[in-house]
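# step 3/5: fold
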Amino acid sequence: MTTIVKQKIYDYLALTKPKIMLLVIFSGITAAIMEGSLVHTPFAFLLAIFALYLTGGSANAFNHYFERHKDAKMVRTRDKRPLPAGRLRPSHALCFALMIGTVGIAIFGFFYNWLSALLSFLTLFFYAIIYTLVLKPNTHHNTVIGGVAGAMAPVGIWAAASGSFNITPWPLFLIIFFWSPAHFWTLAISYKEDYKAAHFKMLPVTKGEIITLQHIWLFSILLFIVSLTPVLFESGLLYLIIAIVFGIAFIIKTWTARRLAYAKNIRSVFQYSIFYLFVLLTGLIIDSFVNISIDI
């Protein structure tokens, strides 16, 4: 495989934002394991996760396409992302986004059910169009409202597995929904000047860092509260201990960042937030496997 081909593959993969999709995929895997019916059919399990990656990656690719001119104004993206760097043609990126999104939705529809296909389509549309084109340039509430799209993966996977619009995955939705602002606002503070140059109405740009840090702290408290809700749906003692211990640690970190407002404390919150979400989801997975083994 030539270097040029490898670079093209890397650039198309970059359109899907693999680092962000890792968290989306892990939340989908958690929902699938908690639901249980796909655990005993590995092909169906992996196919659902693959479809989730395709639809989520499509939404991210549309985001790349629509924001390519703004990305060219930001230091952190203009040389790294394939469209502003000129490594891919916009028309090719658009076709790629349409293709993988269509395939992902079709997989959900034909191999699982059309409820999961509809949820996937609505999530993709919300992120690609509503969040990217409407919310992000016009309101600092974009991170909170846009978090709906990022939090829908567990609901979509649950619908694919069960064929129903069950209430059980919604605690997972709430965890990711309240986690997203606390996580992404720390990033927005670090790249405030970039967002200002691109005319994105991010909270640190419109309200300043102090207000943003206050919001991060408040959302960490709300996140702690909703992180306890899976206990209402048969998650075990292990998860409860994890949620309490690591949730309190998160609140302390956000409080420290709010009080000191040092860059290192803000970066620490960003890094810990990723670790924290993985730990919560892992706790839910372990609890689910314990329950499965008990049922067997």
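# step 4/5: annotate
The chain has two domains: 1-164, 167-296.
# step 5/5: archive (pending)
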